[in-house]
Amino acid sequence: MNRTPRSSRRRATAALTGLALLSSLALSACGASPASGKTTLTFASFGGAYSEAQKKAWVDAYTKANPDVKIVMDSPVDQAKIKAMVESGNVTWDVVDVNGDFGLDSHKALLEPIDCTVVTTCDAPSPGMTNSKYRVAENVTTFAVGYDADRFETEPTSYKDFFDVDTYPGKRGLWKLASGGALELALLADGVAPDKLYPLDVDRALKKLKTIEDNIIWYDSPPQGEDILASGEATMVLNFAARPYDLATRLKKPTKILWDAHIDLGSYLVVPKGSKHADEAMKFIAWVTDPAHNAEITKHYPLGPGSAAALPKADKSKAEWLATSHADTGVGQDDQYWDQNFGSVNDKFQAWLTK
């Protein structure tokens, strides 16, 4: 308010009001509601249907079981934002969903160590996932080839078929990101054994991609990759498996997934260093990753559980869409490799794209 008080009584009232407002703001900044006495956690994730599934699977159940806790969801996740928060001392996220290239030892200055006396799954992630001192596996996703089954006389059976545009005509969709699976796909299709995939032979991968360069549509984001498959602009697209699932289940498209040597990667939970509610954050992470609750996500979104002991509890009706149901053909993306080499590999990859 901009009005000037005309008496000492009004000045006193204004002063008291200001103090009350400052106190309220201070409590809010600390994540506490002065009216309810609740602790407020902020859980940052990637938004959209994914965040909604997390809310249904875990957030609603946790706050019901812990009525003194309120969880606010925020999106999207940005690693640069985590860094800025920590360095400024103004950390507003308490729990963050991150990809496999974050939460490793190289990020220890930005993260609280996971309290494994509270989180019981530190040493028991699902196969192919890599927990660290600073993160715990939440769920398992994968890069897999989705294809339009109505476009081919004979359906593809191998990643090699992605590169056979004579037998399986049409455009191919690949993410214009070095760590988006295109390099791994090319090497696997070129005969590299899964256990010899890393370190990546980038030159060999680019040579393989060049064999179909006229048939490749390089998309900028996973939603765009979904769109070009839905529209028929491409007949095969490498993308997160949730994308062809969406086409098949929500849009009723004749979309299937090629589960041959799919590239598995995880989502992990971390706590930014300086979180004002690190203790409560650890309790929430413990709840999410607990085998009793971890598989709940499979009821709402096609992701495998991140905790090994939760795998048998996955929703049977979505089994065909879960990477964890096809673990025998899965190839784990090497998080350490990408953490150490992303910059140089991406520079080379982007330079090749612009030739």
Number of domains: 2
Q: Would you give the CATH topology of the largest domain?
A: D-Maltodextrin-Binding Protein, domain 2
Rg is 24 Å
Q: Bin the strand percentage.
A: 15-25%
Low-confidence stretches: 1-30
SSE order in H/E notation?
HEHEHEEEHHEHEHEHEEH
CATH architecture of the largest domain: 3-Layer(aba) Sandwich
Number of strands: 10
Structure class: alpha/beta
Work out the helicity level.
Answer: 25-40%
Walk me through what this model shows.
By secondary structure, the chain is of the alpha/beta class. The protein folds into two domains: 39-140 and 266-329, Periplasmic binding protein-like II (D-Maltodextrin-Binding Protein, domain 2, 3-Layer(aba) Sandwich); 141-264 and 334-353, Periplasmic binding protein-like II (D-Maltodextrin-Binding Protein, domain 2, 3-Layer(aba) Sandwich), CATH 3.40.190. 32% of the residues lie in helices and 18% in strands. Strands 1, 2, 3, 4, 5, 6, 7, 8, 9 and 10 form a ten-stranded mixed beta sheet that branches. Helix 4 crosses helix 5 (202-210). 43% of the residues are buried. Mean pLDDT is 89; it is low at 1-30.
